[in-house]
# Entry
Amino acid sequence: MSEPAPAVETTVAGSLPKPSWLARPQQLWAPWQLAGEQLAEGKRDAVRAALKMQEAAGIDIVSEGEQSRMHFVHGFLRGIEGVDFARMKRIGIRADRYEADCPTVTGPVRRPRPVHADEVRFARANTGRKLKFTLPGPMTMVDTLADEHYRDRAALGLALAGLLNAEAQELAALGVDVIQFDEPAFNVYMNEVRDWGIAALERAAAGLACATAVHICYGYGIKANIEWKKTLGGAWRQYESTFPLLAKSTIRQVSLECANSHVPLALIGLLEGKDVLVGAIDVATDAVETPEQVAATLRAALKYVKPGHLYGCTNCGMAPMARPVAEAKLKALAAGAAIVRRELAG
Ligand code: ZN
# Structure
């Protein structure tokens, strides 16, 4: 008989703050502070530091902290033909919640060579822990592009999903334990999720030998998102239409926002059979959770998910946070999960 999976492992949504010598701190799309070979070396040093920070904090499934990409969507797209970064266009994204400078799709998308393989090889060689690698989800990519070629969000999304799948297959073969697709757009365009979003996500994840995850959140802790959340009312039910679709999908893990959010935890019950990565760390405040607060969030989730399927996670990426705050929050996450693990062990 196989041993049951250890209960309540911890992981991160994905990104971690970059060192200030690598990129301007506490800012999205932060410009690099280095260039050329110094930049390449700086990225590798930052990955070592990010892995060490997570290991020292006690995180079980670590990531390279997205230290090598300027932004979680545009990092992958920089390696894609048909996407022109010389033609940036300011557009409203996430249903016009905020504006961003986005590259233009000018022709059929194609992945001429691996994009993240070297980063994964390096991270894999520098940690013995289980390794997660994040890629942008197809719908979130579509939503962060100015498309002048396909002019059809589903068609572009499905095309990108094919490229993501080829990339993900190679990364899994390099020893990644979890490939996660980040789909904050799934909390914005619920009809599109049903019409083509789930199909595109499944195409991106098709046939992967490693675990697959999707991260759906209410965004980074930036002003535009904090203002948006104020308009969502007392009970955030965005997950309600999406989770039943994900429960039927091939994706194994779902990462969601719980700490300090107005998400009714009962919605977790809609993810029957899936691993649930419960966000127990708020990335929109510098106030560091206590281990007991983390434990309380995880305990509350246990009403709706079996212990072997529960993971402690951050609400979202920590890229825009101050580094010492992120470090303290990761320690609290691991300590809080340890409390719950001890309780479950009786
Ligand atoms: Zn997120």
Remarks:
- The first helix runs from residue 36 to 57.
- Residues 13, 184, 215, 217, 316-317 surround zinc ion (CB under 6 Å).
- The chain has a mean pLDDT of 95.
